[in-house]
Amino acid sequence: MALESFFNPKSVAIVGASRQRGKVGYEILSNMVAASYKGKLFPINPNADTIDSIKCYPDLKSIGQVPDLVIIIVPAGVVLAVMQQCAEIGVKSVIIITAGFREVGREGRQLEEQVIQVAKQAGIKVIGPNCLGVIVPANNLNASFGGDLPAAGAIGYLSQSGALLAAILDMANANGIGFSKLISIGNKADVDELDIIKALGPDPATKVIAGYLESITDGNAFVREAEHISYVKPILLMKSGGTEAGAKAASSHTGSLAGGEVAYESAFNRAGVIRCDSIKQQFDYAQAFANQPLPAGPRVAVITNAGGPGIMAADAIEQLTLAFAKLTDETVARLASNLPPAANLYNPVDVLGDALADRYQFALDVVLDDPNVDTVLVLLTPQAMTDAAATAEAVVNIARQKEAKPILACFLGAGKVEDGIRILRQGKIPQYDSPESAVAAIKVMTDYVRWRSRPKRVVKLFPVNRRKVENIINRHLRQGMREIGETDSKEILEAYGFVTPKGSIATTADQAVSIAQQLGYPVVLKIWSPDILHKSDVGGVRLGLKSDQEVKDAFDLMMFRIPKKRPDAKILGVLVQEMCRKGREVILGMNRDPHFGPLMMFGMGGIMVEVLKDVSFYLAPLTAEEAKQMLMNTRTYHILKGVRGEEGVDIEKIAEGLQRLSQLVTEFPQIQQMDINPYVVGPEGTTPIAVDARMTLQE
Ligand code: COA
Predict the structure, then answer these.
(1) What are phi and psi of 337, to 5 degrees?
(2) How far is CA 321 from the centre of its chain?
(3) Strand spans (E) along 98-207
């Protein structure tokens, strides 16, 4: 496995192992010992012969062998010298715990760069600096100062915050949650989040990858690789630092620059990464993935000893758009044969308040056999005769016998269910503190299964005229122009198969009339000047002109008034344009994110985008399904589809427009931003028109 010597080192040197209890260097050595590390341990401290009767060495060279892993815990000013020693003796893997690097400013950053340069030249992989360390319970490795060695389990956890990892460890230890590996990546000066995710992807001990991130080093590579790994196992991430306030906190914390929130959301979507909002939510989900099989579908059956929680679960199932399993007649008959007459035999199956473990065991056994059931949720409230511990044992027993379908539990209460919860956890049955959080975990599992089985992404390539676009862009770049105006933007769009309104420039009123006659009435007149960006502000746009006379008058008025208003502007004439038929106005756009590349936008035009901000985003390049999903993700999608007798618009055509635009911005990375606004769309079978467009090139 990649990073093997970090996870399973046969020998570990601790440089800066301290004699003094409470110091980081002491705690790491003592954690290694307390975890019963099986390999050779070399504490390095020039001022000590032994620490807690373990032999110490004055420096790395005097060990007489090359340790698989070196942990550095000396003050920041000494780290470079220690790294040079590592390079000299041929060490290949180093964890730097020490803080005081990039996160403290310019000098720290320089020091970090020097240390990493030495490491790179010597082919040394480095985790950290400014990290908590690495923990692998199954290998008795606790190379950290994060506390006791947790139980072994199937969650691989990475964290950009060491302190958070320490809190997670504490919480996990209290709740018996196990890990395959825990890695604190700190400033990720060398090994970053993607290296860890790539190492955990093929790791047989890891069933689910979870983590906390403040930034992503290489957005494009992350999306590409994480998408591959998500097919193999789920990735659950908490990402902070997205909002402006959060970003400030992040930069003072680990010195990382956070990217835009929307871009992260889109990137995670594309890569199948499941975003979590809190530690609790993350572990709610992680437990389910780590300990249970994946559900084959969305149908949930509930077994309960109380009506209320059953209804709460049913509401959550409906709200989260899961399906309430309809039990077969055979299941109902089997349940009837052995449950009391007052029991509810339909979903939720109510085994009644006086149910003992045997009733639960029977009902769970029967319901799991039902072909209409994909997941079973077992609810329990502690009533007078309830035996939570025996019921938990019964659930665990059945789960061992019938491993194909996921079983989740929610034992509500505190002291009276405590023993039961412990037995559930030991038996790998995820336990939740509310029916809603259990159902949320089922939802996430179901969505993951659906994501994984979606058709392969195929991005359609349309035949286009790239050369033409290249010429326009190059001309602008040569002239140092970053803004591409309406005419050139439209030419670019036409080269990519968009239809724009027909029209030409007139320099006299007579010319305007003859162009209008050729186009057919009604027409639009727009003042044509490279110096006037906002034409309507100077009275430079007239819509719906219906006759020769109206065109003539409008032309004369513009040519008379505008030069007075804007004497500085060079006026080249007036654009006479066909008037687009009425339709719905939408916006297609793109903004290039510095981390993840082109982020496509779709929104309803006019008031919807300005007031309601009803827009959706997705990373380019788009597949047809993703383009359609962008439309569906807006709140106003049903308006596009047509409501209350109003005719809908051609959804497929809008989706095609988004795909064409996505192709354009993917093929031309010089485009930083662009908008087609409005993009006028009509009923099915009509061609949408790109009425106005703007582009900005990268600096
Ligand atoms: N090689 C080996 N050992 C050395 C050494 C060298 N070149 N130079 C000094 N040492 C020994 C010292 O003798 C000392 O041992 P002692 O206590 O037995 O005398 C030990 O290394 C530690 O050195 P000390 O100067 O006492 O440092 P410290 O323990 O006060 O601090 C760090 C060292 C690394 C813990 C501190 O600089 C630091 O970075 N703390 C923050 C860590 C952190 O928060 N990381 C991020 C977590 S998310």
Answers:
(1) -65, -20
(2) 21
(3) 125-127, 133-136, 141-144, 151-159, 178-184
